[in-house]
Input
Amino acid sequence: MESKTQTKKEIEIQKKVKEFLGTFNSTLPSTMELEYEGFYRRGFFLTKKRYAVIENGKIIAKGLELVRRDWAPIAKQTQENILEAILKEGNINKAVKIIGKNLKKIKSGNVNLEDLVIHTQITKKLSEYKQIGPHVIAAKKMEEKGMEIGKGTIIRYVIKKGKGSISQRAVPYEFSEDVVYDADYYINNQVLPAVSRIMESLGYTKEDLANLATNEKQQSLDDFF
Output
């Protein structure tokens, strides 16, 4: 666990940075100023607006799945846990094991449905939707049950196992008590996209990560480290 107490070296670095800002800003027009935002021991940048950094033991994320509500909790939690392993501990091996553990849990069917719920907001009348996504199908099923759905309604749904398109298999969470979830959907469309954005830059392909769901591949990766 990273200590919240700053080291002498870190304090010296911050002092030098602030001295630099003072010197640099004195050369800029009066309407411009470079600001000091923070000191981050480690950081992970996917794009300018999608990144995660750690400051005083706390992860600050922008644009990643863990701060968005339209991703299932299992995907957001897995991404957050591997970021903690990488940014707090510098432990890539631990991040790999976290992914493997969660993929296996999903595949086994032992994930609670509340950890699989996807939240999406209805932005217009259901009749106005030309592309019928899972949230629209779920919303229509809710209307059939007598529930009022309108612009601004937050739809909570899970994807059940079965035949047909993903959209057709969307079930409102309110009526999902006996639902068997689609493990492949949550692995391939939720967890893997969330973690591969980070792990690919560390040398892992999406296929490598998908194979962590099997004991054989997990063992070979452990041996590699």
